[in-house]
Every structure is written in structure tokens, then in C-alpha cells.
């Protein structure tokens, strides 16, 4: 057997436990005595081996101790010797420092005197040279040697800088400035001619002259002015190419400028070929790119040290010079294009009442986005062409290219508001059916259908507005977008609420509210004739004919469809707001406005788009974004945008549209109120002036023949209400699929819940209205009490059929009016009796109660 020595080194080693464990591990066939003997022998042998090894190692350790002690003593002696040597060296250094300090100070004073003498000598030489150059400079100019004149002026400038503000040379400084201007004037026509004819050698020589006299700005100005002429001529060619703005027709997508969508352009008119600004602008950009490419190649040869500044500056100055004209042409194009679109739509639609701003492609903002996309393609091509240029200079180029659109971007909220309001005004939310008897349900259904259909249209328009904001402003105007969306949605909801108010008249519920409680029942029925179908017969009698049942239920069906409108509006507004928050989250990652606040033109942030090449050569320039440049140049806007995006990330209660949810809830509440009023209209009509009916005070007729007395039957008004309540679930359930919040199928649990919810709500409202009318009864005769008892009993049976319990107040009325008058007082202590109702019935039946 193998022995594990590790267990003997354990602090928790126990001998008995180890022996027991060893015995358990033996083979069952082995004798225990033999096994223990073998185990004892192995332990003894192992102990002897360990003792022998320990003795050997100890002997070796004892032999090494004297040797280690000698080594320690030798190292100590070496350290003491080194210390004494270092001390001697330090002492010598201190002595040398003391004796040489005075010598070094004297040498420093001598060196300073020498430097001053040399400076004075050089100054005298420069002064003498300056006087000589000042006297001979006119001869140099007279010789016509411009390079020599430039060198002479440069030397005079250096001498004058050395001499400083010496009064004797003040006139030389003024003379030098005049001579430099004179030399620049002599260089200008030659430089212009060399630049025009692209003479490389002449251009380089004239460039060196201007650089020598420190007039690099003059070189830049002359180059820009001369080379900008062909680019400005290209811009002015539009006036010759433009014939007019023809009728609107969408143009095909053009992919010549990097694959971006071109704006909707104009086609040919009946008078001949025409060219709109949108059609012409891509061709202008193509020509500019061609000229710019040729200019870059030539400048790399003529100005190898300056082309990185001259070529971008040429494009910047060109774009700045045409910026005002660019804006004017945009205004003209957008106004004429929208007018043409409006005229075309007006010719196609009877009456011509179609807002041009409602057409997204031909609205001002839509056309601007199209032109902006063309400029975006141009800017990408420019970045590819000038990829080797400094990033800060390229940023200025981008700002110049997009400068004409800056004013429109700042007015983005106003432009978006105009377009969205135009799209809302283009919606026809009114039913087209003429109102009349038998047509109100059709008109109501048509109006509700149009309201429901408008919700997805408005949602699509709002989603398109978000896309336009990102496409046109890169999301920088997100704050203006949210304000505009909130305002536009409130305008749309106000339109829906106005229509909802007008539907009250169509449904007839406003008449009930106005005349309910009238003292004259005939006037009530006359004023509410469209509701209950009352028509005067000959002789002035009022008919009790009601509106046909089909008309009643068509109004109910139309009103229930309003619930779909409310739920659709609520769910879509919630989904749209969640989508807005997701968009803002993406903007907080992509824009990083807080980073833009700490950036400058010298350290521009840039990113590489997923669609761009990842080559390091183009990573910087191609990552430039006009959106980030706008944020950098407008710290206040960046600060507000950063606060908005940070709030929506950190605040779980943040609402992108703070007023919309409140107004949607108000609209939903108004819809529920209208639906409830429609469902309750028949009940309230039947109960109108119920308390003033004469039946409650009728007396018993004399019974001459002693005929038996029969119980009273339920009155017509209560049977009508009961039949209506019993019919209501069957009418609601088929409508539950379209009228329930989820639009579920008929027969599902949600549909059943919808029908039950509204049935209970109407039944509870009917009972409350009925009880209110009963409370108004002034006096009850015995016959009137019997009739009221029969009516209440019938209504209680209806409630039971609807799985509803009878309210305690109504139960108290039934018990109290069904009891004989002489036993009424005995009911006071009966269980389930409402005390206030009991006292009211006693007052109606003129039963005096004993005072407590």
C-alpha cells in the first residue's frame, strides 16, 4: 500500500482516525494482524529514511555556515572602504567649488560685455546698410528688376527691425511701406496675367516676390479673384438657361451625385423646354467639381507649398460670393414650384381647395430637402477631391457650401409647422351626407370613419416630419421639432374636438341636455323631434311615435365607433412618442452635443459613416459632418440640445410631447361622455318629466259592482326602458369587435368585457336617472303607489336578467310603495331599508311618523 505523507503534516492529524481509515482501506481477504504488521513496518522504514535524510541535510548546513560568515565580513570591509573614498572625493569637490565660483562669475561678465559689443556693431552695420539701401532703392525700382527690388525691401525690413524705434529712421519706415505697396502694384497685373494664362514659371516667380515682402495675403486675394471668375460665370449661366417654372411633375431619381435623391423637379411646359433651379443645380455642381479638380492639379505644380490653402479658399470665397443669390434662387424656386403644384392640384380637384403645403414633395420644406441632398452629394465629392487638405480648412469649406441653407435650418420649426398644418387642413373630416330625417346615422358613421382614417395619415405625416428633421438638420433642431409636433398635434386634436361637439347635435344629445327637466312635456317633444320622432298630428295632439329602430341603432353604432377613434388615437400617440424617445436616444449617441461644446475648429470631432470607406487616408475628411460643425459654431444651441437629450436619458418621466398625452386623454374622456350620452338618450327621453305624471296621484275608481281588484301592469315608459336595456347587450356585442379598444373579434373575452362594461354603465345610469325622477314625485296615492311598485318590480326583474343587483335605494322604494299605507311605519326597522328613502316615501304617501 502507498502512504500519503501529506496527512501527517496536517494540523488536525489524529492518529486513531488515521489507523481506522487505513484499516478500512485494506482488502477484505487480508488478515488484519498481518495488514497492521506490514503497515507498522512501512511506517518504521519511512521514519528511518526521514531521520537519515534530516541528519544529512543538517551536516551540510553546518558546513556552509562558516563560509557564509567569512563572506559577510568581507562585504562589510569593502563597504567601509568605499565610504571613505566617497567622502574624500566630496571634500575635494567642495574645495574646487569654492575657488572656481569667483572665476566663473568674472567670465560671465566678460561674455555679456562681448555680446553687447557685437550687438552694437551689428546695429551700426544695419543702420549704415539701411541708410545706403534707402538711398539706392529707387535705382533698383528704376531698373525694373522686381525680384531684386523685393530682396532689397526685405533687407530694409530686416535692418529696420534691428534698428528699432530710432527717430532718425521713422521716415524710412513710412518709405518702406510705400515701396512695398508700389511693388505689389507692379506685381498685380503680371500675376493676374500669369494666373489667367496658367504660366507656371511666371506665377512661381511672382509668388516668391510677394512672399519675400511678406504679402502672402495679396497672393491669396489675387489668386482667388482671378480663378473665381469662371466659377461665377457658371453660376450666372442659370439666368440664360432658365426659361420659366413649368407645371409640377415628379422627376426620376438621379444617382450621378453619389446616389442621393434629387429634389422633385419641373418638366417641360407647353411653350417648350424649360429648366428649373433644381434641374440646373446638379449640373452646376458637376462643372464646379471639374474646374476644382483641374485647379487642384495645376496648383500642386505651381504652388506646391500653398495649394492646400489656396484651393479650399477659392471654393470658400466662391460659395460666399454667391450665397445671397443662392438664397434668392431657392426662394424663387420654392415659391413658384409650390404655386405650380397648388394650381395643378386645384385643377384636378373640384373647387381647387387643396393646400400646396399639404403635398410633401412640393412643399417648401420638401423642395429644400431635395436641394439640400444635392448639395450634400456635392460636399461628399469635394471631400473626396480635397482629402489631403487640412481638416479645419475642409470644415470651413463645408460651412461655405451649406451656408445658403443655414437660414432655412434656423427656421425649420416654422417651415415644418406650415407643412404639417397644411397636411391637416387638407384632410376632409366631415361626412358628405346631407343631414335629414333618417340620414343622421349615415352622416355620423361617415364622419367617424373619416376621423378614424385620419389618425394613421396624421401619424405618417408626423413620422415623415421626424425624418425630414434628421435629413435636413441632422437632428440639431430636435427641440424645434418637438415643439412643432406638440403644437400640430394639439391643433389636430382641437379639430377632432370641434367635430365631436358638432356630433352631439347629430346624435341629438345636446337637445336632451338643454330641455331635460322642462315643465312642458309637449315643448320638450317638439324641440327634440329629431330625436324621438314626435310629429304633431291634426288638432295639435303630439304623437308618441319614436325614431325608427334602424335609425336609433345606426346612431348608437356610429357613436360606438368613436371608441375606436379614441383608442386608436391614444395607442398611436403613445407609440409615436416612444418612437420619438428612441430617436432622441440615437441622436444623443450620434451627435454628442456635450462633446461639441468643448470642441473647436482646430480639434474637430469626426466619425466615419458605415457607408463610407474605412481607409485611413479618407477617415478624417470623410467623417466631417455639417451637423457637428453647426453645433460647434452655435454653443447655445448645443447646450440646449445637450440638456434635452440628457433629460430624456436620465428622466424616466420625460415626455417628448408634454401636452399631447393630456389632450388625448381629454379627447378620450369627451368620446366616452358622448357615447354614454347617446346610449342614455332614450332612457332620459322616456324619463323626462316622469315625476310630474298625473298617474302618481290618481285615486281609486268607485266599484259599483264589487268587482275584484287586479294588480297594476308596468307602465309603457318602464317597459320601453327595460326592453332597451335587455336589447343593448345584443346590440353591443356585434359592435364590440370594431368598437372595443383592441378591435377584438366578436365572442372573445375582451368583446364580452366591452359589451358588459358599457351595458352596466348604461344600466347604472338609467337606474340613477330613474331614482332621481322618483325622488321628485310630490305625492303618491294608493293607486299611484301600486303603479310605481309594479314599475320598480319590472325594472328589478330586468336588472336581475342582466345579472345586476337592485340598488338599496330602489329596493327601499319598492318595499315601501308596495306595502299598505297603514303598515308603512312598520318597515322602519326592516333590514335593508334605506332610512332617508323610507322617510321620503312616507312623505309622499302622507304617512306621519312618530318622533323618536
From TrEMBL:
<keyword id="KW-0472">Membrane</keyword>
<comment type="similarity">
    <text>Belongs to the COG7 family.</text>
</comment>
<dbReference type="InterPro" id="IPR019335">
    <property type="entry name" value="COG7"/>
</dbReference>
<dbReference type="GO" id="GO:0007030">
    <property type="term" value="P:Golgi organization"/>
</dbReference>
<dbReference type="GO" id="GO:0017119">
    <property type="term" value="C:Golgi transport complex"/>
</dbReference>
<keyword id="KW-0333">Golgi apparatus</keyword>
<dbReference type="GO" id="GO:0000139">
    <property type="term" value="C:Golgi membrane"/>
</dbReference>
<dbReference type="GO" id="GO:0006886">
    <property type="term" value="P:intracellular protein transport"/>
</dbReference>
<keyword id="KW-0813">Transport</keyword>
<dbReference type="Pfam" id="PF10191">
    <property type="entry name" value="COG7"/>
</dbReference>
<dbReference type="GO" id="GO:0006890">
    <property type="term" value="P:retrograde vesicle-mediated transport, Golgi to endoplasmic reticulum"/>
</dbReference>
<protein>
    <recommendedName>
        <fullName>Conserved oligomeric Golgi complex subunit 7</fullName>
    </recommendedName>
</protein>
<keyword id="KW-0653">Protein transport</keyword>
<feature type="region of interest" description="Disordered">
    <location>
        <begin position="251"/>
        <end position="270"/>
    </location>
</feature>
